[in-house]
Amino acid sequence: MGKLKAAVASINTDALRHNIQKLHEQAPNSRLLAVVKANGYGHGLLEVAKNAEGADAFGVARIEEALQLRSGGIVKPVLLLEGFYSDSDLPILVTNNIQTVVHCEEQLIALEQAELENPVVVWLKMDTGMHRLGVRPEQYDEYIQRLHNCKNVAHPLRYISHFGCADEPDNPITSQQIELFQATTSKCEGERSIAASAGILSRSDSHFEWVRPGIIMYGVSPFDDNDAQQMGYRPVMTLSSHLIAVNDLKAGESVGYGANWVSERDTKIGVIAVGYGDGYPRTAPNGTPVWINGRKVPIAGRVSMDMLTVDLGPDASDEVGDLAVLWGESLPVEEVARYVGTISYELVTKLTSRVIPVYIKDAI
Ligand SMILES: *Cc1c(COP(=O)(O)O)cnc(C)c1O
After folding, report:
1. Mutation test residue for ligand 1: of 20, 22, 35, 159, the one with most atoms within 8 Å of CB
2. Which atom of ligand 1 is nearest to the CA of 35?
3. Which atom of ligand 1 is nearest to the CA of 196?
4. How far, in Å, CA of 319 to CA of 326, rounded?
5. Strand, helix or coil at 255?
6. What residues sit in the active site (predicted)?
7. Among 4-8, 136-140, 207-211, 248-252, where is mean pLDDT lowest?
8. Is residue 4 predicted with pLDDT exceeding 90?
9. What is the CATH number of domain 237-360?
10. Per residue in 269-310, pLDDT tens?
11. At the top level of CATH, which class does the domain 13-226 belong to?
């Protein structure tokens, strides 16, 4: 037995750089606000930001994430994509030079009533049709006026919106959202942004001055019917572990909790040291692929907390200690997500703290 580590997430910073370069080619007239919320989509907030030299700014969802970037030495602009959640956040934004979205009247009033040392950079969010966050178009002018009159707001304002269906390229809502955003901001002097990954890839007319790539920057597709590698992006994360047992199983015998998989033939079962305690989904059904020794093998039996089991086949020569890739370069996370019935976003962000992150570069 060698010295093996269980679940490891290898993060290839050269792949990240490649993807950022590719994004600049894809949106050549736009600046890039790299979205690093949720621990950099599970890739490591600070490590991603430090290796994202080509990014022009960073987007996060929580003020704690913004502060982690600042205390980690990141000096580029940082934007709170959903804005601040309480009045007491405002002085922190000023002190740490953090930009904010304003999407509702409560945030506007907080800005109007605050006593701040310096003005805050504000992105006014418009609800162009997703109906999650944002000011309705018919109220947009009034908000612009009030923000213009507010001494705590830096000028010019910036304008932001978000697509609800850009991952469905034929959905007419996206065009309506672009037109509405374009029309409502046409007389505004500030910079605009509406496209996240799906918009960047499918609608060049949505790029405006800033694009906001999240998932595609990590080399994962926002669409459910293709893989990012087919579009020239490289997966940044590879989740792997090792075989800790290879056992014989007879035809008619079952494997694992609930005995929900029964072998039709004599075979060999591989036990891999990764489970839902690491963030691998327990809902991965029988048949979900795992990559071992150059081929895909199917999950056989329920995923448990620390282990999962695969059918290696009767002629398998795999051994304890062999590498198993759960997703990554050889096995797109998009494919695993399709089996699990979720989106890749959820798989990469749900890894737990038990998974060891390892930052690597391309072998030369
Ligand atoms: C998360 C998020 C993004 C990035 O979305 P992806 O689909 O991962 O590219 C962009 N903009 C906003 C407002 C977000 O919340």
Report:
1. 35
2. 4
3. 9
4. 17
5. strand
6. 37, 257
7. 4-8
8. no
9. 2.40.37.10
10. 999 999 999 999 999 999 999 999 999 999 999 999 999 999
11. alpha beta
Confidence at residue 278, expressed as pLDDT on a 0 to 100 scale: 98
Which one from 22, 37, 125, 268 is the annotated catalytic residue? 37
Asked if 125 is an active-site residue, the reply is: no
Q: Is 218 annotated in the active site?
A: no
Residues 13-32 have a mean pLDDT of 98
- For the cut 90, the answer to whether the pLDDT of residue 183 exceeds it is yes
pLDDT 10s digits, 320-337: 999 999 999 999 999 999
Query: Residues 5, 85, 151, 257: which is the catalytic one?
Result: 257
Average pLDDT, the chain: 97
The pLDDT of residue 160 is above 80: yes
Ligand 1 is surrounded, with C-beta below 6 A, by 35, 37, 81, 162, 196-197, 212-216, 222
Share of the chain above pLDDT 70, in %: 100
Residue 195 Cα to ligand 1 midpoint, Å, equals: 8
Span 245-271, average pLDDT: 98
Protein residue with its CA nearest to atom 6 in ligand 1? 214
Long-range contacts of 348-352 (CB under 8 A, 24+ apart): 348/41, 348/42, 348/43, 348/218, 348/220, 348/237, 349/38, 349/39, 349/41, 349/42, 350/42, 350/279, 350/281, 351/9, 351/42, 351/239, 351/278, 351/279, 352/277, 352/278, 352/279
Whole-angstrom CA distances from 53 to 35, 38, 192, 345 are: 13, 20, 22, 23
- Has 305 been labeled as part of a binding site? yes
Domains 13-226 and 237-360 share a fold: no
Distance in Å from the first CA to the final CA of the chain: 29
| Nearest CA among 91, 67, 330 for reference residue 80 | 67
Domain-by-domain residue ranges, the chain? 13-226, 237-360
Output Rg (C-alpha) for the chain, integer angstroms: 23
Q: How far away, in angstroms, is 310 Cα from ligand 1 center? A: 35
Residue 217 annotated in ligand binding: no
Q: φ, ψ for residue 245 (rounded to 5)?
A: -160, 150
CA distance 198 to 163: 9
